[in-house]
Amino acid sequence: MTFLDLEDSVAPAEKVAARRKVVEAIKNLAWDDRVLCVRVNGWDTEWTYGDVIEVVGDAGDRLDEVMLPKVQSAAEVVALDLLLTQVEKRSGLPVGHVGIEAQIETTRGLINVEEICASSARLETIVFGPADFAASMEMPVLTGGVAVPEYPGDHFHYVFSKILMAGRANGLQVIDGPYLYVRDLDGLRDYARRTRVLGYDGKWALTPDQAVVLNEVYSPSQEQFDRAWDLLEAYRKATEEDRTGALMFGDEMIDEASRKIAQKFVVRGERAGLRRSAT
Ligand code: GLV
Ligand code: MG
After folding, report:
1. CB within 8 A of 15, min separation 6: which ones?
2. Pocket of ligand 1 (CB under 6 A)
3. I need a labelling partner for 264 at 20 to 30 A (CA). Which of 96, 201, 220, 271 fits?
4. For the chain, what is the domain count?
5. Is the pTM of this model over 0.90?
6. Are residues 182 and 142 in the same domain?
7. Residues 193, 226 share a domain
8. Residue 161: which domain range?
9. For position 145, what pLDDT does the model report?
10. Closest residue (by CA) to atom 3 of ligand 1?
11. CA torsion, points 227, 231, 234, 237, in degrees to nearest 10?
12. Is residue 279 in some structural domain?
């Protein structure tokens, strides 16, 4: 997924002019088959409706999603959903064509994350925004989204878990936000493993170098992929041929829960281009 930004990376004086540039970029650059998204400005500004009307209205069907930043309540997602419906009707797009990604990056947004995740059929992804979140919490850090060594543990552990649970409970993709030390790829690899281990689907890349590291962190290894396949086969044989639901797989007892976990590895691995090693 790639997103073009109209929000915090665009200076206020350029906000309106940036809309046209984004529309031109969507129409004229080669995006291949990647999911294409535009981040509009949040509802606490004066720009949201204009961003949606101009960009979604003019970009055509190549635009797949709109990202809404600083979401504070379910009503904000519903408002965007209603506006998108009108813009789609007016511009001849099928209603529901444009999906929504919602960023959770304020204290109020986190408090309301469960309702936010259940607020619209257009919602595809929930995204954590660590920089804004640190600002909203008034954390005494100058860089959001990096480790804070003074804190015993991970200062975002609760936040990561809460967003992940709310997203998964509603069938959404769950994504971690940016790592701002763009030159520190080892630091990125280390920090990204935290959300990967919890179960996140991915993390924002700000540069092509970051994308290489993150693709590696969030994809299963060949060994995990092969083991997941072996487990699925052993489980299938046990349930279908031997009619047993629990069995030994090497030193481990496996059952239906193990199958679900292994299935995820296979799907993610295949998406990352892995193929089963020859045995
Ligand atoms: C991203 O938008 C962030 O605030 O971290
Ligand atoms: Mg932000």
Report:
1. 6, 41, 47
2. 103, 105, 129-132, 144-145, 177-178
3. 96
4. 2
5. yes
6. yes
7. no
8. 2-210
9. 86
10. 129
11. -130
12. no
